[in-house]
Amino acid sequence: MTRTPSERFCGHCGQDRAVGHHDRCDRAALLEPPRHCAACRRRMVVQVTPTGWTARCSRHGEVTGEPV
């Protein structure tokens, strides 16, 4: 999976992607929405509905997705 420079942090655990392995986090990301902003590491407000999910960072805006 190719990452953009704005995706410095892991959306699942919030740690720097350059440090350690995030294989487990990447597998979890296939089934659930991100909990941390990939650009700034802030904890996001996440809402899950039957039709999808939204995750909102106070600084970088909203990310949406569909259920698996």
Describe what you observe in this structure.
It is a single chain. The protein is an alpha+beta fold and 68 residues long. The chain has one domain. The protein is built from 1 helix and 3 strands, in the order αβββ. It has a 3-stranded antiparallel sheet with strand order 1-2-3, with no helix packed on it. The longest helix has 7 residues. The model has no long low-confidence stretch (mean pLDDT 87).
Order of helices and strands: HEEE
> How many strands in all?
3
Shape: flat
Class per helix and strand makeup: alpha+beta
Q: Please state the average pLDDT score.
A: 87
Q: What is the radius of gyration?
A: 12 Å
Q: Would you kindly provide a brief summary of this structure?
A:
By secondary structure, the chain is of the alpha+beta class.
Describe the secondary-structure layout.
Elements: H1 23-29, E1 45-49, E2 52-57, E3 61-65
Antiparallel strand pairs: 1-2, 2-3
Keywords:
68 residues, 1 helix, alpha+beta
